[in-house]
């Protein structure tokens, strides 16, 4: 039995990460993409909540960012043992401390494809079935996707101004491409590597402003440990530890780089994932452990300025 996990959502938008896992075989982390595909002819239903609570720097109740809550609804399908397709529908809630500008609604839909292959005396596409020994081989994926601008990018605050960071869409499609590698070193211990790049394009808002979010580059690593399993009861519990590096380019307004945007962030993720029959539940805490942000003192409410992020996932195969 296999499960699919869609991860992870950042401060102003969501990004897909992909992976599957069974009661036996490699582990799947919380935020890093693993190198597995869905079984041919099977669907995967998915729900995720990513809740971000931000640090605040003024004692008064003002317009500092309070929290973001990102819900992700997903559906995956295995076209071939080595090829999986996904659609994700995000729902965002963004809240300021003084409630002067809160937004809530469906954001840009995203489509994703994953091609899986492995190394077994040469590179081959993932076969229909694999033994436990085969699952110990190095597995890889290349993946790519695009967002469709279905969310509203032109939401206005009470003064009639548009803030792109509080919007529900980018106005233009975005493109993501990535690569993963997964190795199960022992029956219980799995290492996962994932890197990806996301490209944004300039969009002209209804007020005439031209805005482009900074491109994103990620390098993620993870270790999962199977702490307990009972094949009789169809139950498994994994512990997860991850390091997620994120480079953010500067946002641009009318063609010029914006102050207090972009920089480098290293997140640490602690979590677990439990499996029962064809259902999986995951939980994690994500913390910014190191940051090097541009004009860092001015970036309240941005990536790297969270107190914490709480991540919950639920998925089922059918």
Task: Break the fold down into its secondary structure elements and pairings.
Layout: E1 3-4, E2 7-9, E3 14-17, E4 20-21, E5 43-54, E6 65-80, E7 83-96, E8 103-106, E9 109-119, E10 123-125, H1 132-135, E11 139-148, E12 175-184, E13 189-199, E14 203-204, E15 210-212, E16 216-230, E17 235-248, E18 252-253, E19 256-257, E20 263-276, E21 279-293, E22 306-317
Antiparallel strand pairs: 1-4, 2-3, 5-6, 5-22, 6-7, 7-8, 7-9, 9-10, 9-11, 11-12, 12-13, 13-16, 14-15, 15-18, 16-17, 17-20, 18-19, 20-21, 21-22
What can you see in these coordinates?
The radius of gyration is 20 Å and the shape is globular. The protein contains one helix and 22 strands. The longest helix has 4 residues. The protein has a single domain, classed as Beta Barrel (Porin), CATH 2.40.160. It is 1% helix and 57% strand.
Order of helices and strands: EEEEEEEEEEHEEEEEEEEEEEE
Structural class: mainly beta
Percent range for β-strand residues = over 45%
Total helical segments? 1
Termini gap: 10 Å
Q: Poorly predicted ranges (pLDDT <50, ≥5 residues)?
A: 1-19
The name of the CATH topology is Porin
Proportion of helical residues: under 10%
Which strand order spans the largest sheet, edge to edge or round the barrel? 5-6-7-9-11-12-13-16-17-20-21-22
CATH superfamily: monomeric porin ompg
β-strand number:
22
Arithmetic mean pLDDT: 89
Global Rg: 20 Å
